[in-house]
Amino acid sequence: MSVNIGFVGLGLIGGAIAKSIRKSHKDYIIYAYNRYFPKENPMINEAINDGVVDHAAGSLSELGCCDIIFLCAPVLYNIPYLAELKDVIKKDCIITDVGSVKGNINKEAARLGLSANFIGGHPMTGSERTGYSNSSAQLMENAYYLLTPTADTPKHVTDTMYSLVQDMGSIPFILDNAQHDDITAAISHIPHIIAASLVNMVRENDNDDEYMKTFAAGGFKDITRIASSSPEMWQNICLCNTASIRKFLDIYRGSLDRVEEALEAGDREFLYNIFETARNYRNSIPNSKSGTLPKVYDIYVDIPDVPGIIAIIATILSSNSVSIKNIGIVHNREYEDGVLRIEFYDESSMNSAREALGKYPYPVYDR
What we know:
Layout: E1 4-8, H1 12-24, E2 29-33, H2 42-49, E3 55-57, E4 68-71, H3 75-86, E5 94-97, H4 103-111, E6 118-123, E7 144-149, H5 155-167, E8 171-174, H6 177-205, H7 211-215, H8 218-224, H9 231-240, H10 242-265, H11 268-283, E9 297-301, H12 309-319, E10 326-329, E11 340-344, H13 347-357, E12 364-365
Parallel strand pairs: 1-2, 1-4, 2-3, 4-5, 5-6, 7-8
Antiparallel strand pairs: 6-7, 9-11, 9-12, 10-11
Helix pairs in contact: 3-4, 6-10
């Protein structure tokens, strides 16, 4: 019996998931739907030409045969699709999404009586680039994929999604939806707000000669890189995860108030401790970057998920007399190119590694 998979939206993440499913399940039949361009969507047509998608759905009703439907539109757009799909889907159809906010869509699934069909999903992968043409199955490899079942999600639904995520090459992790939204608010949504606010602070307070913009260097660029992300996407996220974002904004505002108080009081110990504790904790997180931080020499490499591939990469570098300081798989792939991160002791080694790997079919990226 064939398995039918449906996609509502087929951009970067939807495309990556579809390509991963096609790679691991060549016999699955994949449908894709786009509200604005049902039959003539260039992305869906490209996916059909690639052999990834089998059918372009002209309406949501054509997804009625699907066993699993992925909602891959922006988070505010995914919610109305639940109501539209309610009278379309099979009784045992699984509906999942890929958004970074879970509480509101879980509530809507419950309101519509779809809790037994719905399980939230959030692949921790992505890029500043958008669209199907920038997607690849490798985006999913070794990336965390968070699953947030409802209280009424049957075990077999969770098990099915858990297994499918593993088949994609991702790492499934089950969370409560409220816990998920607090986590993503703290580590993703608040940083994006801070980055955007910091950029706008400089923009609004620069002089006519734009000296701030001219002299902005490593530290400013590192901390504000994510401000280049899609405004529509982050508008959607802020409007969907308001409670968790406000919670952590309040916490962050309090921490800034304590810094201001320490500055006014000349509290040397407090000021030292906030930088020391932050440095120690930040250094315990992989992928430190350059700028005001110590210089890090690293590259990211796209590799296939096959046995022995890390050993092959290490052998290539060793045969070219390149010493490796650290090597590891990147599991949170959001805004990271390459699944394998390699760190070196100096710039010369990094450049030699880039040159050596350039002779092989492993794309190399700099950060």
